[in-house]
Fold these 2 entries.
Entry 1:
Amino acid sequence: MHPRDWITVTRQGIYIEPGDFHIDPLRPVPRAVVTHGHADHARPGHGATLATPETLAIMAARNGGSLDGADALPYGETRRIGDVSVRLVPAGHVLGAAQIVMEYGGARVVVSGDYKRRPDPTCAGFEVVPCDVFVTEATFALPVFRHPDDGHEIAKLLDSLRLFPDRAHLVGAYALGKAQRVIALLRKAGYDRPIWLHGALQNLVDLYQAHGVDLGETRPATGAAKADMKGEIVMAPPAALQDRWSRRLPDPVTAVASGWMRVRGRARQKGVELPLILSDHADWDELTTTIQEVQAGEIWVTHGREDALVHFAKTKGLHAEALYIEGYEEDPADATGGGG
Amino acid sequence: MQRFADLLDGLVTMPSRNGKLRLIEDYLAHAPDPDRGYGLAALTGELDLGTAKPKAIRELAEARCDPVLFYLSYDYVGDLAETLALMWQGPEDTPEDPPPLWEVIDTLMAAPRTRIPELLAGWLDRLDATGRWALLKLITSGLRVGVSGRLARTAFAGWAGLPLNDVEEAWPCVQPPYEPLFAWAAGGPKPEVRDMPAFRPFMLANPLEETDMPALDPADYAVEWKWDGIRVQVARRFGETRIFARSGDDITHAFPDVVEAADFDGALDGELLVMDASGEPAPFNHLQQRLNRKTVSAAMLRKYPAFVRAYDLLQDGPEDLREHPFRHRRKRLEALFGTPRDRFDLSPLIPLNDWSRMAELRDEARARGMEGLMLKRWDSVYVPGRPKGPWFKWKRDPLTVDAVLLYAQRGHGKRSSFYSDYTFGVWRDDELVPVGKAYFGFTDEELRQIDRWVRANTTDRFGPVRAVTPGLVFEVAFDSVHPSPRHKSGLAMRFPRISRIRWDKPHAEADRLETLLKLVEAAPAADGG
Ligand SMILES: [Zn+2]
Ligand SMILES: [Zn+2]
């Protein structure tokens, strides 16, 4: 049976009929399989939620500590749901992020969720799984998005600290994934001063540390003396940058760590002084490489700029089509949940 | 090139002046020679590299990129140069090192237009995304990173630890990439303006307040008329003449008659004027006909002949006179221009030594077509800027009329929520005709009162402008009034400002156009300009 006959797109998202479950459903469903903990993928309220233990821990942390119907499936183990066998494989996106590998009726389908290919010290790296149908994300699916080396971007931040030693450096980064990666990259670059955190980041930074990701010393920025944060790195969710919250900082340099920062007009429009091009999504080269490496007969493109990637795939002789699902963050730069 | 690209990249998102200064200073500290000089020149627009048009970029994009992907990307990014810079793909194998900035600039300056696309492609292959963006911005003259010449010079002075005024003075003596400036910063000699027909920063006067007078001894001051033209510096060395306006802008091209007649050697400070048929200075409006023109016609030159009335000598031959007192400079000036030369004469001194006689003379200024009086201390050396004490200007009293508010416009910046720009009119028969526009210079409280009045009396709105019911009278002060075919009333005011709000005055009693017409100074024949 062709996967098109057992995988459908409903109002809730991708539905797997022979297993009677949804992937990353947008609304509450009886049974969900969740790729990763970003809020637009991992919504609460499902009857049962299958995900990696890390993702479930993230969802529980978000949910005030617990999650009803949590059903953990570690990477690499197989589980039968209905007539479908399901396996979770690292996606390299954030801690716990998984591709969902499904086998049914002699066909293997992989739903990538959000992913990236470059190494990230805070999570397991993407694994290529050859398949018949590859459902890929397309957040940065334009050839203008080629993320630079992350060491280069961290060097930019450290260089700015050297140039403006009296100014706090306020780095906007998503609470899940990006914030921890920025801290880890700073540590890797030898930066060993305490990093000051907005309250909204503390929870997940602690969770990462508890999962064995060493992020060094962090301190709460709220309640700290203004003078103490001169020349220091302070991290906050992007939404807090223009907030009154930032007034507590000494003449801050506003930085944002996001793949969207690649386009200068966007950075300027958002009043970002120091754009750091750090993304947890695959860039154009990673997307185009991946859809070729999985050797799938069909590529289904969703979650972003489908048209460019579909066009590219066709020029390479691949069968590709767009899978339009409403509801995931098109532009996570404006949201708190997704990850640029 | 890479460092320059990173600098541009930093500047483009850096809003604060201090932040920009810091970035440029850091660039100067780390970029190699001669790149950093070229970098400065590129920032301030002193390099003319606008050799590639958007069309060339589009063609390059179409030749090297998938057109569907290019236009999808362009649509998203919204900037042609940035789109191509981001999606350009260099060769797979390790590319050559990025080109230094000097190589790019030297090559571009010498290359024929037809070779540009090929050169560009070669460089784009060797640069990273930021470098490619900077290169494409550079050659389409679209840097727009908010760096003025002044800011760049301030950064240079800050980095080199040199006084800004010295840097301002040395700057016009050198060409990109400014090797002598960097040699100077490294401890070498200052590039000397002495040997160049280059700009020397002006010394400026403070307004004389009545309260200043008791403390001043008139005997310490030389007195001259304040002429109603524009202040210029004429520098001539080794046969090359340059005329600079107050701003330091080079306006040589607009005054070929003056340039041609110049036959002295040195640099003078004086008033640029137009002469009337009798050889006397004509009203300002005549000079106006010669300003801000791209080309100067023979008719213009005949109708409005320009000349310079010299009042200071900054350099005589190879000798810089600025460190000498005014008394000495004046003697040297008289020696040079005592006998009038073609298009150059001397601003005479007025022998005066008491305040009351001086005040009488100032009252005559308007009738004599003067802006007022200038007072310069005999012992003053010529220093850039506006030091308090050595020089004063004592301007004639302004003229005033009572005019009626017709339109109000929202201001800018701090005043953007207030109606603070006003168009006012006077009566012609039983109709009010607009005669000028001014913004308010008084207290916040008065501004609020007018703002309230405007909002309560609005009859119509056009964007940021409101028309109001005639009713509010302003006393408008202005320096002079001239015929102007551009205004419905046929008149234009010079330096109008609102001097008083006449809440008490019924608008029917505001002034009439005839009153203003009587104040018009002798006008040049209409020429439609
Ligand atoms: Zn997502
Ligand atoms: Zn995500």
Note: The first strand of chain B starts at residue 206 and ends at 207.
Entry 2:
Amino acid sequence: MCGVFILFLVLVAVFADPLSHLIGWGPTQQDRATGTTADGLPVGPGRIHLLGADQLGRDVLVRLIYGARVSLVVGVSAAVAAVLIGVIIGLCAGFLGPAVDSVLARLMDVVLAFPFLLFAIALVTVVGPSEPLEIAVIAFFSWAAVGRIVRGQTLAIREREYVEAARSLGAGNLRIMVVDVLPNLIAPVLVYVTLLIPISIVFEATLSFLGVGIIPPTPSWGNMLDDAQQGGLYQVAWWFLTFPAAALVLTTLAFNLLGDSVRDALDPRTERLFAK
Amino acid sequence: MLRFLIRRTLTGLLVIWLISVVVFAIFFIAPPNVAFLLLGKFQASNQQLVEQVTAQLGLNKPIPVQYWDFLVRLLHGNLGYSYYSHEAVTTLIGRALPVTASLAIGAAVIWVVSGVLIGVLSATHPRSIRDRLATLFALTGLSFPTFVLGLILLFFLFYKLHLAGIDWFPGSGYIPLTQDPWQWFLHLILPWVTLAVASMAVYVRLARGQMLEVLGDDYIRTARAKGLSETRVTFRHALRAALVPIVTQFGIDVATLLGGAIVTEQVFGLNGLGALSVSSVVNQDEPVIIAIVLLAAVFVVVANILVDILYAVLDPRVRLE
Amino acid sequence: MTALPHGTSPAAAATAAAAAAPASTDDDDALLTLDDVVKHFPIRRGVVIKSEVGQVRAVDGVSLTVRRGETLGLVGETGCGKSTLARCMTRLYPLTSGRITFDGRDISRLSPRAMRPYRRQMQMIFQDPYGSLNPHRRIGSIIGDPFAIHGVADGPERKRKVQELMELVGLNPEHFNRFPSDFSGGQRQRIGVARALALRPKLIVCDEPVSALDVSIQAQIINLLQTLQSELGLTYVFIAHDLSVVEHVSDRVAVMYLGKIVEIAERAALYGTPRHPYTAALLSAASVADPDRAAVRQRIVLHGDVPSPIDPPSGCRFHPRCPKAQEICSRVQPDLVPVLADLPTHVTACHFPMADGEKLGTAPVEPADDRPPGTGVW
Ligand SMILES: Nc1ncnc2c1ncn2[C@@H]1O[C@H](COP(=O)(O)OP(=O)(O)OP(=O)(O)O)[C@@H](O)[C@H]1O
Ligand code: SF4
Ligand SMILES: [Mg+2]
């Protein structure tokens, strides 16, 4: 189920251009003639704009489609980057002995102690918002949680007899880390990636909502919701709030469910959340 | 115990110091045009005035010296003055802190208490309707971004009820607790719930998983065999053991609290630290931003020390010394 | 050496000085020599603050020699430091002090990098056939590890060599691509043997290679090890707590107690005329396969727990449990010396070694649980 939804989302994001062509509106195209009423209010869902228009007469459906693209690109790249960094640093911290560990563990403490949203806002304001920066910021504040868990698991694996066996064969640290420890981490890593994607998507939407993410007029679900909140516009134009909110919630829900089933499939020991 | 506290305080100070360096570095990478901010558009073209202001603030000194001056001031409790409103940073923060504290503490109480309670209740009857509902709630709650939830609550519980002539929940604003406790409470209900739900979901999952694990342990069977009542077994014996990871999680969540507060304050128009930080970021009000970041870092560090102590209290296997 | 303890035979006293460090005898056929090897583990307290509050004296001054082509058995109760000693021999642990000579070269201070060439010549077989194989890797790749690590063979050649090894240890070479979980305990131990053999080492340290296996399978693995020894000219250090297994495989046997060697002798001598009271007690406690001998030997049960290696007893470490203990035993630590002058290969660390045919009495501590079986509280 959730897999189908995610697949649908991916297809929509990939084919955003032909889809918007089909629908007949561009993502930033303002329909001043029919998109807003005489007194400047956006028109609701109807034949011209399937899911209604926004305050500038832009088509909500088309903007949603392009927003999906932003969410997926930012969410997936940030999650993958965060997990890569987290695994490498967690692995080193857990495997290379107490000296390296205490430095890296402290580093993770620092990152985890950061008031990260505030920090992200400050950074983005100072450097200027852009999509790559947003990805970097999200990844930077997410890797430490993964690093901590990987570190713990590595500490346990390090004591296994097969690691000792590898040492007795003359294997060096790097080889043992890559050949003997890493394969044990594949299952949890896959779980983290699926669970970090929705977190990153929400992070992205939050930054955009606060005006420090995707720069308007490029649509993202977060800045659409920001538009909706401006001047309490959503109170008169519910579609303006409802559709982006629903898209966001359904997407994160789908990824969370997917993460749960990936965990169930890979690690039968953990409690499954939905009993079959 | 004492040595533990000293050590943790020292590493905590290290963490805070590192954070102060990073914040400082950001403004070093891209310094705001302070003279412009302070003098306004017209006077900023007066080169002499600009230099005078820059010198006054010590901004013409080398960066390490500036950082050193900043540290010295900080140790004297002087956080400087806002570039924007020219008020003392301590005054600004003093005004915003009660709002955020009310919001954060109330939300934390709600999410921990109800999250753990729901988790425990669903763990005592695994696979029941109750359990499934709790799980569904947890997953949905987890999937709601804070600001979306806030907007939805506002839309239905404030705006729609308001249209229907029912004004139970105010849509915005903050009434100090000292002024009118009831109004304080009413004004904070929606923000509390908004901020609490996502974290609550995490606690439901965590508490449920932990309880299921602990309830299967031998000593719980022993406690049952001794004829203790089920409630007593659940809450006195099992919950205590299950609380350890929950406490750990709480330590992690504290760091995210300010982030949640920023969003919630934005949605509900509360003038707390979150709103203050967003506005000072937008205004490039460097002294205020640095102060808030440091305050938040201190808060996280202190909370984590407390969590470690609590950890030792809860888990007899952990000894601080 | 201080005043000679009473009860030491004059002959033994005469050779004591020369034999004090039996390991350092310049044996041409010595493959591995340990010289006063010590391994202490620091005990740290505290989750957050780590302070050293003591040491586990897991191996506390061991000297012995392993000769080319022989099997040296090493027995002792659980926790006496056998595995730690094995890991010291193969330099998996850094030594606290002492000297290890392998094939004439001092390897006791070599860095992991400098140890690498020696790793090809000494290998280990581990106790746990489940824990010592990475469950996430195919066995072909596990057995091929030594080749990969030492850059010996690649690609198809490595595969061929791995399959040869599999055949050598009695595994089906077709099973190259399976995972460890597809194999039984005995088969897994064969995988471990194949991996240890890959680089044709001179010495293999087997740390309880069969104790995790069913009795029927134990014999298969032991036969395999013995066949391989005669075919490939291997030298074994064979660790076990099962005395009969050690008797079956060893040429010489060393007995360990609380981090120290208390007796070393040729197999027949050790099993026939044990000199150390601990050895005698172990032998009598063991279920002896040979019914004739079982009948002769009366059971002596050791009373009390094994003392902690953190704070071992003074003098002779066995004295709190020794039926023969006298006052001196708690004061003076006995040296590992030959019991009889004309038999320098049989050494023991006891002030009052057992005479031929001597029977051990009961322990000094009056046992509380010494009732005949069947009449207890059960
Ligand atoms: N890494 C370590 N850190 C601290 N103490 C250790 C460590 N390894 C072993 N010890 C301690 O050293 C002592 C000897 O342990 P060792 O594993 O060598 O005994 P063993 O004779 O092999 O026992 P077994 O028959 O159970 O395998 C034990 O008291 C053990 O607790
Ligand atoms: S030295 Fe004393 S205590 Fe130790 S074994 Fe010999 S007789 Fe027993
Ligand atoms: Mg062992």
Note: Chain A is about 70% helix and 0% strand.
